[in-house]
Inverse folding.
């Protein structure tokens, strides 16, 4: 396809541009990550050396296991998984039926309800920090992952994406199921959901990634160290943990998201454009 | 008639859980926030109405002006880097016909990192001694900077982290928009004798104007709420140079237990961000119509 510069205009120019872009992007986005992964395997005294060694003089890959034990990363992984999986499950269980009702059942005041939900998207998250925190406290949900699950379910963006997808489902299929006598629950479960795999994948990945990356809400909700998620625990440990162990901890806690991205790259990137604006 | 009632009952059954969640965690806090700003709240005594006292306390706090100045500086710098750079990067990537998958993967990789992880990695790389950044600068024959340790460069350092971590999203959204530009527009402009820069300015920019504007507004709203980077990397220092509005709000609420004043600050933030949000709504409405 024709773009800004006609293809084949200048072979040399193109090659130079390609090489420069590859080198620069790799240097900026990949090198720091590799630098962390490798540096974690240097002993602490070697890490403090100026200038730093490129590759470890003494390889200590055991740092990763040591960091896992010392910081008790296993339990913080578990806490984070409980939050992320819970957010995902509750968000789908709450928002899918709601979006289906708004899209297909069109109840009285449906439009007003959708409007009231979308208004919350326009509220900057920071503005609701204090009143939402106080509400969570009033409900006795501090130090309880359910606070984050329910907070995650009040996600207008998810409702909007799902509703827009349900709006576009072919009417004939739904009519056929209806004539066969399916009630609305069967219809949603047996007919609509199987047709909605693409959007469910996008919404699911969004939910899990957002929950894993979240910092401020877990920070506010989990004052009890035993309940904290990886992000909250790591920043608490950071000031008094030896650097090599901290780096190993940072790498380990990022691996699930990097892995998720590598496996579901197509869905993650599809969600980007589905969510924002159509080109 | 009875059928219609039954249908509505089913629909509200499906909606009930969502209505409860939104009511408790969105709608009620919105209303409550407006009231809290005018109350004295400390979790010990019952809330008492205090009128504009919370706002007066804020205006008397020297950190109030500092926090707004810092936040605006962060937003401005974040736009220079986080708005212009991804656009130009997307333009370049759109021209390249090789390694497409690799480029996408690489720019988006940092977006997958938890912000706390990105902040802690950069804090370590900013170390003026053995840190990677000063090592690279010295390797190029330049002098190292003090990065987070000096009030001159602390905010810039935070902006670089935030940009590094988030640039992938904007780049890929722009890239999708660029791919929607019809090729004949470039061809016609070229036949008219327009050079590369003029084609960029007169074809690419107008054709992606809508996406650019939307992301610009979203970015302003997001960057003005910056919290994680200053909280994790500098705690607001050195010399209060990275105290942002949200960090100040957090201090009022969770250090001083003064939820009323924190809410008053939220309301002021809402006022400012509301202007941008209204602008965003106008822009997207117009495009829908």
């Amino acid at each position: 396809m024709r773009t800004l510069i006609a293809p084949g205009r200048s072979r040399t120019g193109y090659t130079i541009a390609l090489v420069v872009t590859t080198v620069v992007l790799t240097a900026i986005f990949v090198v720091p990550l590799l630098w962390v992964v490798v540096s974690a395997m240097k002993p602490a005294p070697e890490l403090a050396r100026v200038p730093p060694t490129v590759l470890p003089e003494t390889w200590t890959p055991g740092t990763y296991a040591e960091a896992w034990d010392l910081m008790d990363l296993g339990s913080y992984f578990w806490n984070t998984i409980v939050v992320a999986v819970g957010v995902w499950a509750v968000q789908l269980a709450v928002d899918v039926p709601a979006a289906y009702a708004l899209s297909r059942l069109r109840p009285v005041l449906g439009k007003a309800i959708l409007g009231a939900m979308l208004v919350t998207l326009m509220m900057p998250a920071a503005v609701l920090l204090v009143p939402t925190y106080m509400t969570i406290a009033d409900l006795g949900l501090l130090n309880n992952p359910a606070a984050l699950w329910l907070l995650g379910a009040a996600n207008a963006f998810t409702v909007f994406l799902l509703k827009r997808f349900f709006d576009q489902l072919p009417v004939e299929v739904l009519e056929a199921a209806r004539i066969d006598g399916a009630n609305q629950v069967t219809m949603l479960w047996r007919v609509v959901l199987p047709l909605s795999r693409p959007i469910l994948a996008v919404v699911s990945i969004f939910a899990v990634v957002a929950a894993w990356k979240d910092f401020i809400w877990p920070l506010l909700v989990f004052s009890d160290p035993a309940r904290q998620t990886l992000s909250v625990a790591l920043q608490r440990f950071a000031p008094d943990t030896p650097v090599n162990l901290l780096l190993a901890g940072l790498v380990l806690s990022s691996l699930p998201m990097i892995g998720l991205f590598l496996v579901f790259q197509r869905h993650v990137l599809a969600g980007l454009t589905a969510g924002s604006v159509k080109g | 008639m009875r059928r219609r009632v039954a249908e509505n009952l089913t629909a509200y059954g499906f909606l009930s859980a969502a209505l409860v969640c939104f009511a408790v965690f969105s709608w009620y806090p919105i209303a409550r926030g407006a009231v809290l700003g005018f109350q004295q709240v400390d979790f010990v005594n019952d809330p008492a109405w205090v009128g504009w006292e919370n706002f007066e306390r804020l205006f008397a706090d020297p950190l109030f002006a500092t926090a707004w100045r810092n936040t605006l500086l962060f937003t401005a710098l974040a736009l220079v880097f986080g708005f212009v750079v991804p656009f130009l990067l997307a333009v370049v990537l759109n021209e390249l016909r090789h390694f497409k998958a690799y480029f996408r993967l690489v720019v988006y990789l940092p977006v997958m990192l938890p912000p706390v992880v990105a902040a802690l990695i950069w804090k370590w790389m900013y170390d003026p001694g053995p840190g990677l950044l000063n090592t690279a600068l010295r390797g190029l024959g330049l002098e190292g900077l003090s990065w987070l340790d000096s009030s001159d460069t602390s905010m810039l350092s935070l902006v670089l982290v935030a940009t590094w971590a988030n640039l992938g999203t904007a780049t890929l959204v722009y890239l999708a928009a660029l791919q929607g530009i019809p090729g004949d527009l470039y061809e016609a402009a070229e036949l008219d004798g327009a050079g590369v820069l003029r084609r960029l300015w007169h074809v690419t920019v107008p054709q992606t104007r809508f996406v650019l504007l939307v992301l610009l507004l979203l970015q302003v709203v997001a960057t003005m709420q910056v919290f994680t980077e200053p909280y994790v990397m500098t705690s607001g220092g050195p010399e209060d140079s990275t105290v942002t509005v949200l960090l100040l709000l957090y201090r009022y609420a969770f250090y001083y237990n003064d939820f009323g004043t924190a809410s008053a600050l939220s309301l002021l933030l809402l006022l400012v961000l509301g202007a941008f949000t209204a602008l965003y709504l106008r822009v997207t409405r117009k495009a829908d119509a």
About this structure: The radius of gyration of chain B is 24 Å. Residues 125 and 131 of chain B are 4 Å apart (CA to CA).
